[in-house]
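Example record

One chain of 680 residues, shown exactly as stored in the release files.
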Amino acid sequence: MTEPPEPEIDVNLGAGPEDRPHVTLKDLGAYRDSQFPVWVLDVDHFRIVWANDAAVDLWAAGSAAELMQRDLSLDMTSTIQTRLRNYTADLWKGAHFDEEWTLFPRGMPRTVLGRLRGCLLGDGRMAILCEGQVIKPNDANMLRASQALLYTTMMVTTYAEGGQLTYANPAARRAFAGFDLSAASRFQNPELRAVLKAAPEAAREGIWRSAVITTQGPRIHEVEVRQSFDPVEGRRNFLLTELDVTAQEAVAHELSNLAMRDGLTGLRNRAHLTGAAPDFIANAAQAGQTAGLFLLDVDRFKLVNDSLGHAAGDTLLQEISRRLTEALPGTVLLARLGGDEFCCLLTTGGGEKVLASIASHLLRDMRRPLQIEGNDLSVSVSIGLSIADSGQTTFPDLLHKADLALFDAKAKGGNRLRMFRPELAERNNRFLQLDAELRDALRLGRLELYYQPRISFQTGKIVAAEALIRLNSPTGSQVLPGEFIPIAEATGRIAAIGRWVLAEATRHLVRLRGIGHAINLSVNVSPKQFADPSFLALLRQVRPAIEEVSGEIELEITENVLIENDQRLQRVLAQISRLGYRLAIDDFGTAYSNLASLTRYPISCLKVDRTLVAHKDFRLILTGVMTLARAYGAKIVAEGVETTEQHAWLAENLCDEYQGYLFSGPVPFAELQRMVNSGQ
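Predicted structure tokens for this chain:
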């Protein structure tokens, strides 16, 4: 026996016991001579307890007595047995079931359309009265097709012109039990309803998704509509097949939602912002409002990650997200772009002034102290603001301009708002141009070292020279380091430039020493070079050439790098000193350092900053600075000496060396050679 589909149940819960359609064995006499098979199944023992002659023939039995001896459980799966037992409770309530079964008496398949009702046995138990009608298909294929329609979970219906239902398979009847299946309006999709209202021969075929009301409540069905012919009346009709895709729709919606959300903060992400921003900007223009874009970045976020760990950093980002959500109106488009960068699009009728006020409020709100994993933190943010130009500005343009403004805010120390101005774009273009020139300069040999001599106050002779790099532009102009070194540091090209400078300065030192000139050279070292593991290896590599000519290359580092007690930097500088290199502090006196901070490092030379030498009260200022330098025991070099008055005072106060335009500005290496050869 094959398992039937779920039954169509018609339960009359309001009927009294005397009204319920139960029969007893005594009531079955009327069925004895019926041409339709009727039998009673005892579901407790799975035996037939009564059968008419038509049923005996159906079951291929020799007699009713023989049929009643059969154990039908041998021909049933456990699922069918359980299902039949479960029918009993509904049969007591007066339910009946219309089902189609395929039986296999003596192994021969027979399809029966039957109605199952309750039958009270003499001992008070409930059995199943089966009233059947044998279906005799024309061929095996029709039998299989009929069975497939009955057992499939796909809902199949046919409609005549006008929306009149002509067929519904069991799956459709179960899904829409109690609903008017003939009403095409049960589909919520208006396009699908219009298709079903048309004449079948003129209707479009296709697949639609539509909300429908079913016995399980609102669902989403995928409905395929095809033109067909009614096999009974021969007229055109609609053949509809429906699949419940509610779960797939929910999963697809959730996946789409997840794809547009940031997993850490729950805010929208870059993908959502990119898709929604154009309409947002256009709608603002149509409403006569100003659209602005805030690009917000957490200042020194890496420090939180490095000191407290990434979990603390994640918590901080979640807190920033919460504060932004609370501080901004619900109509904004707020998103986390990635890392510690947030973006929001908002509109206002008050223009630039109102947007600046909102940004200032955000800056204050973000500075409120917070506690992260037991640590009290006070963080700040930087904001770049760009404003759409009467709806003509595209979102990528707006984002790019805000990014330029944010970069400027970060460069000025952070914790501030910067609004985009055209000069920022000009600066960015210059940045990109110089970066490209730097890339080509390293490859094509367009870098050059100039040297500014250092003169001994005691002998009046050149004793050293500071190497100063120049970039020879393809246009013929020369770019000074103050313009391109920050770009090299930002792009990471500083390491390659630093390697070139050290190798070139070493080559020049060997050349000068080789022709008998006992002068030394110094090179400036970027703080980022000290973090480069290959820097120490390069120093070891060129050291033998320097020692061979008994020369020295002094490495200059700016004073502000040494203010904090950086133990890693202390170790690196100690290693450099052990290799035989001298270390000098450049721009000394500008970073408020003290003797205690200097004693942590092996410094041999202090170069007093040019701004102190040029100050109108230079005598008073330099007296204090030089007193500190002498206490440290380092050689003192004055930078930027341009007047005889400065020169005379420094000589009188026992400064060791000076450099500046009073003697010479930076010159090419060939000119330095000429100056040394002439004995200046």
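Notes: Confidence is low (pLDDT under 50) at residues 3-20.
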